[in-house]
Amino acid sequence: MDCSTLNRFRHDVYDCFLRSADTLWNSVDALMSTTEATSFPEISQSLWFERKWPSLYKAFEKGRIDEKRLRRTFVSYLKPPEALHWYWIGIDASSIARAEAVTSADRTAQQVHNLPECKKAVTFGWQFSTVVVLPPTPSSWTYILDQQRVHSQTTALEVAYAQLACLVPQLPAPAIVLLDRGYDATWLWCRCSSLGVGILGRLKSNRCFYRVVPPPTGKRGAPRKDGAKLQPKDRSTHGQPDGVWSGTDAKGRRVEVTFWKKVHVKQARWLDVTLIRVVRPHASNKERDPRTSWFVWIGNQDADVVQIALGYVLRFGQEHGYRFDKQALLWEKPRLRTPQQFERWSHLVAIAHNHLVLARSLVEPQLRPWESTQRQPTPQQVRRGMDKLLACLGTPARPPQPRGKSKGREKGATVKKAERFAIIRKTPKLPQLVPS
C-alpha cells in the first residue's frame, strides 16, 4: 500500500456518496482521526469537519450511499491472502440496542449475550450482519466487506446467505467461511454448498448425523435411507472415525482432532459433510472455553481437515473488530431516529475501519507510555497518528459554501408529534427444506 493507492481508494469511496457527499466524507475523516470524541456530535469538532454540527445530522437524514458500488470498492482493494492461498471469512450479527427509542421503526427483540446473571437478558433495537476478512492472527485488524441490517421480515441466516451470494463471485481467491453456533442451520448449509466456498461451522450438541447407507439386506420392505446414527453428545454412536490427529496449535498447546467423513442429515441426504471433533485439554471447560468442540465442514472432502479445523480460532478476530467499532469508532453511540439513517452511519463506520486497515503501513502508531512496544500496533494506535497522513493526502470533499440564514418554518405551521412504533416480537422462520 502506498499513498497513491490509498488516495485512489478515498476518491472511489467518495464517488459512492450520491447525496450530501461532502459532509459524509468530512464525517469519515473526522471519525478516524478524532480519538477524543465520545459522542456523535463531538465528531463535528474535529479540524477535518469543515462544517457546522447541525449539518452532521442533516447529512444522515438526507444523504444517500450506493451500497452495491461501495461493496465492489471494498473488494477491489482487498489484499491478497497472506497464507494458504485462501481468505478466512467471518460472518456474524451484532445488536444495536434502542430499548427506549419508541419513535424508531422496525425494532425487534435482541438477545444480550455478554451480561452477568439477570432476569431478562433481552433488549430491543436493530441487528446488523457483517462479513469480514479475518486477519492471520486474531486481532482487531479485520477488513469489512459488507454490512447490512437484518430487517424484521427476515433472519440473520437469510441475510448472511444473500451477502455471500453477492461477494463470493467478486473475491479474487477462494474462501473459507467460519460460522458460530448461531448459524447451525441445514438450510444455510444447502444454500452455501452451491457458492463454491468452504463452510466451517460450529455445531450445537443436540445435532444428529447419519453415516452412509449400508448395502441392502435382501429382506422385504423399503430399503434404509440412512446409515448408523452419529450424535456428538452420545459417545456410544461415535464408532470408528476416519482420521485422528494429535499435535499442538500455533501457541504450542496440545490439540486432538478427530473427524468422520461422508455423513449427512435427514433433511438433506444429498449433502455429504465432514464431522470434526476438537479436544483441547488445556481449556477451562467453561461455557466460553469448552474442552470439546464439534464442527461441520462443507466443501472439498479431500481438503486437509486438520488444518481447516485449527483455523477456526481466527473467527474470534471478528469479536475484536466489533469491540473496536463500538468502543473507538462509536458505532452504537448516535441516536439517529430511523433505521435508514443508522444504516448510513454503519457504512461510514465500515469505511473508517477499512481506511485504517489500508493505511496501517503508512502511519506511525502513537503509543501511550503504558502500552507495550513489543506487540503489533492496534487500530486505535494507528488512528492516533492519522492526522499527519490526512494532511498529506488532502480531501476529495469540496469546501463548504455559505448559504445564509434559514427562513425557518412558515407562519402558522403545526408540528405534529413523532409517530410511535411498536416492538416487533415475532421471529420470522427459514424456508422449509423438502427431505430428499
Structure description:
- Strands 3, 4, 5, 6, 7, 8, 11, 12, 13 and 14 form a 10-stranded mixed beta sheet that branches. The chain has a two-stranded antiparallel ribbon with strand order 1-2. It has a two-stranded antiparallel sheet with strand order 9-10.
- It has a domain at 68-213 and 225-338: Alpha-Beta Complex (Transposase Inhibitor Protein From Tn5, Chain A, domain 1).
- With 436 residues, it is α+β, with helices and mostly antiparallel strands.
- The model has no long low-confidence stretch (mean pLDDT 89).
- It has 11 helices and 14 strands.
- Strand 11 (243-248) and strand 12 form a beta hairpin.
- The longest helix has 20 residues, at 339-358.
- It is globular and about 90 Å long.
- Helix 2 (21-31) packs across helix 3 (54-62).
- Biggest sheet: strands, sense, closure? 10 strands, mixed
Elements, N to C (H/E): HEHHEHEEEEHEHEEEEEEEHHHHH
Extended strand count: 14
CATH superfamily of the domain at 68-213 and 225-338: Transposase Inhibitor Protein From Tn5, Chain A, domain 1
Given the helix and strand composition, which structural class is it? Answer: alpha+beta
Radius of gyration: 25 Å
Short description:
By secondary structure, this protein is of the alpha+beta class. 26% of the residues lie in helices and 21% in strands. It has a domain at 68-213 and 225-338: Transposase Inhibitor Protein From Tn5, Chain A, domain 1 (Alpha-Beta Complex).
